[in-house]
């Protein structure tokens, strides 16, 4: 169960090698979290992440999970919930893709969409059902400001995140009053391996800053979290710019 501040004692991470997710797990372990499940493709990286979290004092287990295999989601994630209640599910998997390449290779573009949207819909519904069955818990979904408005530079990735964002908002409404809390997190440019080599955008942030925002959002039982907070105002302005003006911006 959650502690008096709304922080989880048990955590399931979907995307167990995500730098943002691991920063969040470290922060929560430093508070009260004692049991962590890392779900992801079996790999040395997943094992290393589990080992690092064990070194912080948590009981950590891994579970084989592939966003691109929705048919296996219910069985794989069901095993986690069968072990006991899960206070927090952090949906953190995703792929950026390569916009220039993916425009020329529709199959690659579809892979981005299937990972970021289809896989997330499947896993999100499986976890939401399990959380509802146990009567409590939070589902935190890592979205992106890229989903707020289509940009020439990353509209394939952005469109997948837009779909994920709307799905998560609707799921939160569907679960309202059931004891299950859904929180959408919209970071801007985060300095991670995924963005290495890309031009850094204004208001760039770090995995640790996103983790701090997630913790604060959980304490406040927020429904939407922007990281950094100033992006809420920036994106509101950009979202309402006339299309002709927006096209001329260096975005």
UniProtKB/TrEMBL annotation:
Alphabetical list of InterPro entries matching this protein: NAD(P)-bd_dom_sf, Sc_DH/Rdtase_CS, SDR_fam
Gene3D superfamilies: NAD(P)-binding Rossmann-like Domain
GO MF annotation list: oxidoreductase activity
Source domain of life: Bacteria
The protein's Enzyme Commission number: 1.1.1.333
Record key words, sorted: Oxidoreductase
Similarity comment: Belongs to the short-chain dehydrogenases/reductases (SDR) family.
Name the record gives this protein: Decaprenylphospho-beta-D-erythro-pentofuranosid-2-ulose 2-reductase
Lineage: Bacteria, Bacillati, Actinomycetota, Actinomycetes, Kitasatosporales
